[in-house]
């Protein structure tokens, strides 16, 4: 039973489509409910182990392709983007699996204390929704890239071939349908894990940061309003000092609470962001080269390139929001 976040009143959260996609297609990273039955824990552990082996197999197959085409720069660069993203998600997803409990705690605390509902502050809520647009844009582009791999595979089957979705050379013969079918299905499943991890983690980070920024904004507004009321309605200095003391204590407590959540965001996502930017520049260079030299045969890379650029912009926006506070 996959975990369903709830608001402070206990009502289940209506997750946006990136978070829903992450929840439904990434059992590796998404936590279980507190009251999940024992066999679901065993099932997710088995899925984790099988998934890890599948990623290792695809890693080996893609390395074989790169090694075989080492002296053919164009063919080798065709396989590098998928290999880079495979390694990136292999690290991100399978390390995130060990942080399921902390991620669930963050979701629970976020929707109970940090999330700004439309009924509370329509202006801030609307601003947060606008800040999600860059993430939503590159999420759609990544899904289009995944869809293009699926379409090309189906097209190859329709014309009597047995294509693999990605550039890879498995260490075994896959001409038999009994071997080819699970190989292709596992490859496409890896694609869904990759896409859901990129989409879900990026959206979650954006959501955490911008709603937290909104809470800091609300805290500052309450402090300013409180000071203005003190100056207007206090009858003497001692009364003004007492009121200001109460407001200051409440503001400091709120600031400490928000800072603790900010530290949790940092602890949860620092390593993942490091991995993202470690691969981003190299992957983007290869993608641009492939799209420039062979645009007709690089339709998945077109979506992927634009998505990478948009992803960079989205993380830059997050960084700007953090620095501004």
Outline the structure in words.
The protein has 325 residues and is an all-alpha fold. It contains 9 helices and no strands. It has one domain. The chain has helices at residues 17-25, 38-68, 73-96, 100-114, 122-131, 133-158, 177-233, 237-293, 299-324. The longest helix is centred in the middle third of the chain and has 57 residues, at 177-233. This is Odorant receptor. The chain crosses the membrane at residues 36-57, 135-157, 177-199, 269-292.
Ordered list of secondary-structure elements with their pairings:
Elements (H helix, E strand, L loop, with lengths): L16 H9 L12 H31 L4 H24 L3 H15 L7 H10 L1 H26 L18 H57 L3 H57 L5 H26 L1
Helix pairs in contact: 1-7, 2-3, 3-7, 3-8, 4-8, 5-7, 6-7, 6-9, 7-8, 7-9, 8-9
Protein name: Odorant receptor
Organism: Musca domestica (House fly)
Keywords: Membrane, Transmembrane, Transmembrane helix
Class by alpha and beta content: mainly alpha
Rough shape? elongated
- Summarize the helix and strand pattern as letters: HHHHHHHHH
Major sheet size, sense and barrel closure: none
Number of DSSP helical runs: 9
Radius of gyration: 24 Å
Question: What's the rounded overall pLDDT mean?
Answer: 86
Query: Which ranges are low-confidence, i.e. pLDDT below 50, for 5 or more consecutive residues?
Result: none
Distance between the termini: 38 Å
Helix content: over 70%
Query: Number of domains in the coordinates?
Result: 1
Strand-residue proportion = under 5%
Number of beta-strand segments = 0
